[in-house]
Structures are given as C-alpha cells and as structure tokens.
C-alpha cells in the first residue's frame, strides 16, 4: 500500500486524518548469528521493507490499535497497567507504551494504524521493527526527545521483559540506527559500533524467504540462550570472562573440557567461532574480497546447522542449491532460524536466473515455493514527510 492509500484508510477507520506518519525498516544480518546475546559482534543492515505507522491524537484517553495485516484490533486505557496475555500483534507496541508509562512519561490517547510489508515470521525482524517504530513515534508525538540509540536499548528491554524473549540488542539497534549503503559492525556487549560501506559489486545480496514461518517466543530461542549461559558458567571456573564472546576459538578449545554436556559444548563452539567469523568478514569487506566473504557465509551456515542446530530442511535446501549454482559465491540462513530467511551472494548477471532456478528447485524439494528478492540497504526509523 502507498502512503496515500494508508492515509485514506486511516481516515476511513478513525473518521479523522492522521497527523503523523512513520516508517521503520526490517533488517538482514550479514554475519554473526546467535551471538548478540553472548556479547559478540554482529553485522546487520536495515532493508527497504518494513513497518508503517500512522497516528492521530484522540480525546478519549485510549490507545486504539488497528493493522492492515491482522484482523485483531485492541483498545487500552491510557495509564493502565499492561501485560502480555496473548500472542496478538498489538502486544509488541503495547509493551513499548508500558515501558514509557512505567517511566512516568505523560502520554495521551492515540489512534494507531499499522501496515507492514515484511513477510511475517520470516526472520527479518518484524517484531523489532514494530517496537522501534512505536517508541520513535511516541518520542516524536509527545516531544520526549529520546535518541535512536536509547530507543533500541529500551525496545530490547521490552522484548526481554514484556514479550518474554531473551534476545540481544542486534535487531532493535539495526532497525533504529541503519545507514544507507552501510552495514553496522556492532559490539552487542558495549553497543560500540562503526559503519562499514557495503559495495558487493559485481554481486548482489539476495534474500530468500523459505516461507516456513517461525516465532521466536515459541521456538527454542530461549533454550539456546540457557545453554549458552550454562557453558559460560562452566568456563568461568578457569576463565575471567563476562560473555562467551570474550574468548577466541583457540582459548575455547583449551578450556572446552570444563563443559560437561556435549550439546552445550556444541552451542558454545558455534558462538565463539561465529564471533571469529565476524572479524574475518570485516577484514574481507574492508579489502573488497567478496569471494572470501562468501566462504565465511557458507561456514557460518554449517555451524548453525550442525553445532547450534537452528536450521532445518527448508533452509538447508536453499543452501544446498546455492552451493551448486555457478553464480553464487556464498549463502547462509539469517535470523534466529527454525524457518525464516536465508541470504546469498549472487553475481548480478545471474540474479534473475538464480531466483527462477532456486524457486523451481525449492518447490520440488520442499513442496511449496520460496520467495527471492533483493533489497536496498536503507536508513533506520524515520518520520515520513507529509
């Protein structure tokens, strides 16, 4: 839907025009998976797909939630005590309202209308997009003046405490702080970050939606988090560390005997080696070595598949195809896994043929088609001009 169409639909639903329009992108993580909650470095970028929010104040002292993508609507009184009591979409923005309410920020009634063009459950951070979007809109509408960086941090807290998912800072940070044509090298422990220009030419980053939906809250995400904390606790018997990503692969191997559960050992091995892969990917990017980056992506997927065990038949089918395709130099699942998306580095000349061949192959193996697209690397959350 265009912004004009959204404006008309808002007025049709709420019988008044919207007074503000906002957009927050989704994100793709180039490299560094499942290490954001282990204090590692990640390399995400914001994409051109995302979530739109139109707002207008009301005199009824209520927050009204409506959305193009979902039929559920909701209404909550301003100043109430809020809690998540279901799985509906509106709990993500409500969690942000709850955060501001607890911080004694004065909020008034709002009519809220959301629309997203991110595939739901695809691993492109639709939940972080809607959280950051809500926080940014509240800050703008009520002149709270909170920075984008602080918005990312508060939305992580909402995800952890209100939604109940032990995620790290990466998703919220990427969609809040994205920069056009740059990836963000983000230290998830300190939130220190730098922007690295990303010019993949003559290759393109292709995003492949497996069309197998996944939900972080319902997946084994929290289980993996607990396994990492167990590994960290046991390594601390001999190592003075705060996070698993405080050590490199060599140090881990010297102390791996401390981890008594072999499954937990595999999880920790992925985390430590993935963090090293981010460092190698940074070097490859800065040297313009796309072939080296491609090999790092393949290695990341193998680790996510065999050590962290968060891939699956659908994602593996995509990567298996990529390995055999002449114009593709690297691929891996991206996001939390258990379905969702993969990314591939594909030569520009082969992009269309790659998409067609992969879709046909995937349909034959899995039984339904995948969706292949490219996306510009975009800015983070923003106010849309009237």
From TrEMBL:
Function recorded in the entry: Catalyzes the transfer of the gamma-phosphate of ATP to D-galactose to form alpha-D-galactose-1-phosphate (Gal-1-P).
Chain sites annotated for binding ATP: 121-127
Domain GHMP kinase N-terminal positions: 93-179
Cellular localization per UniProt: Cytoplasm
Species annotation: Terrimonas rubra
EC number: 2.7.1.6
Domain of life: Bacteria
Domain Galactokinase N-terminal intervals: 8-57
Name of the molecule in the record: Galactokinase
């Amino acid at each position: 839907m265009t912004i004009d169409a959204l404006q008309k639909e808002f007025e049709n639903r709420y019988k008044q025009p919207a007074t503000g329009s906002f957009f927050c992108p989704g994100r793709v993580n180039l490299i560094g998976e499942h290490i954001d909650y282990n204090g590692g470095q990640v390399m995400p970028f914001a994409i051109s797909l995302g979530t739109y929010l139109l707002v207008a104040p009301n005199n009824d002292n209520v927050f009204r939630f409506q959305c193009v993508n979902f039929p559920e609507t909701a209404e909550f009184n301003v100043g109430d005590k809020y809690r998540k009591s279901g799985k509906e979409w509106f709990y993500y923005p409500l969690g942000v309202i709850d955060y501001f309410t607890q911080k004694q920020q004065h909020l008034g009634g709002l009519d809220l209308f959301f629309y997203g063009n991110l595939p739901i459950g695809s691993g492109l951070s639709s939940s972080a997009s809607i959280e950051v979007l809500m926080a940014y809109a509240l800050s703008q509408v009520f002149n709270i003046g909170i920075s984008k960086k602080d918005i990312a941090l508060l939305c992580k807290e909402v995800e952890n405490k209100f939604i109940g998912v032990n995620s790290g800072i990466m998703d919220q940070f990427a969609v809040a702080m994205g920069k056009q044509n740059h990836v963000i090298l983000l230290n998830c422990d300190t939130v220190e970050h730098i922007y690295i220009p990303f010019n993949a030419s003559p290759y393109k980053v292709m995003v492949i939606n497996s069309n197998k939906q996944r939900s972080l809250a319902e997946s084994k995400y929290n289980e993996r988090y607990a396994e990492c904390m167990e590994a960290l606790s046991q390594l601390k018997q001999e190592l003075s560390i705060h996070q698993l990503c405080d050590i490199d692969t060599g140090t881990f191997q010297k102390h791996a005997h401390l981890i008594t559960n072999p499954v937990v050992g595999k999880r920790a091995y992925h985390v430590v080696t993935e963090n090293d892969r981010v460092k190698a990917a940074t070097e490859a990017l800065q040297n313009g070595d796309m072939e080296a980056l491609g090999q790092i992506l393949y290695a990341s997927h193998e680790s996510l598949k065999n050590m962290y065990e968060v891939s699956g038949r659908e994602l593996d089918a995509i990567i298996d195809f990529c390995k055999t395709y002449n114009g593709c130099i690297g691929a891996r699942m991206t996001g939390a896994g258990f379905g969702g998306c993969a990314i591939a580095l594909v030569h520009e000349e082969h992009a269309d043929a790659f998409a067609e061949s992969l879709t046909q192959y995937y349909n034959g193996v899995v039984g339904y088609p995948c969706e292949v697209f490219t996306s510009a690397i975009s800015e983070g959350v923003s106010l849309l001009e009237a």
